[in-house]
Write a structure and sequence with these properties.
This protein is mainly alpha-helical. The chain is built from 14 helices and 3 strands. It has a domain of about 150 residues.
Length: about 350
């Protein structure tokens, strides 16, 4: 959409979000990246593009999947660029949610109140993305309603390779292997992107509270927040019914498959083309588990702790399935939405094999 501020509906509520303000807020408050000269920055971007190109053939050979020639190549971005892309995706994903909230509003607010509300909500989205913008090395942007594309976040990759004290050339290629696998997953499997977007949107709309729900939701915060902080499952679980939690679990199973599959491919490819892959993996895994203090609390509230488990559980699922039925047998997971692992099957790969292969 070219116009990011949603004007109040004449018949519905005045619920809308100032997405341009979200972009500006995120870009202003995001942390500065590592210090590099202009020449160094140009070299880093060129090397990341080269790493992405070099990952294509090894990932295709190891996974048995290849991105179509028409698939857009990866895009190297800074933190501000990542924020802009994700605000656009937020807008597309949240539109049905905003429409639901607007339709359920009892009182129609004036234009001034709506504009203030839009700024507040935009600032909240911008603040969330500013926090996340320093954590993400790469992301396949599903871009609902737009052009999906793989993003490599250059300052974060440089920051982590410096923190870990690993070989930059090897680390960038290791990251590229993981992210190229995501590009392959979503471009070689034609139905996957739309399925994931649809499932996520439907769940988000279902979870969005109406005015009648607010009182019960506040009570849930008081009773379940300590439990969720301990579990690291994220605030999305806070307001869910049992049926909704089951749907969240099945969606999480899909994400575990995608992340675990990418981890397996990057490590299987690694020894052939990345000399220091064992050192990189050991140091990176320690880093994944090392957050402390307020950063760890935020990770728990946002569900990032659960995301870390996705890598482990998904990789275990992929390796167990390949041990049982080989790479060709694993390929059945991409055959149709019904072939994706269900929540219990991620931790019990044999159950998936029995369901799909018997």
């Amino acid at each position: 959409m070219s116009e990011s501020t949603r004007l109040p509906a004449k018949t519905g509520g005045a619920a809308y979000v100032d997405y341009e303000f979200a972009k500006r807020t995120g870009q202003v408050i995001t942390k500065a990246g590592p210090q590099v000269s202009f020449e160094e920055a140009a070299q880093i971007v060129a090397d990341l593009r080269a790493a992405a190109a070099e990952a294509v053939d090894p990932v295709a050979e190891t996974s048995g999947m290849r991105a179509p020639d028409a698939a857009p190549p990866p895009l190297v971005v800074d933190r501000a660029g990542w924020i802009r892309a994700n605000v656009d995706s937020f807008e597309a994903m949240l539109t049905p949610v905003v429409d639901k909230l607007a339709a359920s509003r009892k009182v129609d607010l004036g234009a001034t109140a709506a504009a203030i509300g839009g700024k507040v909500t935009g600032a909240e989205i911008g603040g969330l993305l500013a926090f996340l913008s320093s954590k993400i090395l790469g992301q396949y942007d599903l871009a609902p309603g737009g052009t999906p594309r793989l993003l490599l976040v250059a300052p974060n990759i440089v920051q982590v390779e410096r923190q870990l004290e690993v070989d930059p050339h090897d680390f960038r290629r290791w990251v590229a292997m993981h992210e190229e696998t995501h590009r392959v997953q979503f471009t070689a499997v034609p139905w996957l992107r739309e399925h994931l977007v649809t499932q996520s949107q439907e769940l988000a709309v279902d979870l969005a509270p109406t005015p009648e729900d607010i009182g019960a939701r506040l009570q849930q915060i008081a009773t379940r927040l300590p439990e969720l902080i301990r579990s690291g499952e994220g605030l999305g679980q806070l307001f869910a019914t049992d049926e909704q939690r089951a749907r969240i679990a099945d969606l999480t199973a899909i994400m575990s498959l995608l992340e675990g599959h990418a981890d397996v491919i990057m490590d299987d490819v690694g020894p052939r083309v990345i000399p220091s892959v064992a050192e990189i993996r050991a140091k990176f895994d320690r880093r994944r588990m090392s957050s402390v203090g307020i950063d760890r609390l935020l990770r728990k509230l946002l569900g990032l702790e659960a995301k870390m488990r996705q890598y482990r559980d998904g990789a275990g699922f992929v390796r167990a399935v390949m041990d049982a039925v080989g790479r060709d047998g694993l390929a059945q997971v991409w055959a149709a939405p019904q072939s994706l692992p269900r929540a219990p099957e991620i931790l019990d790969p044999a159950a998936w094999v029995r369901r799909v292969h018997v």
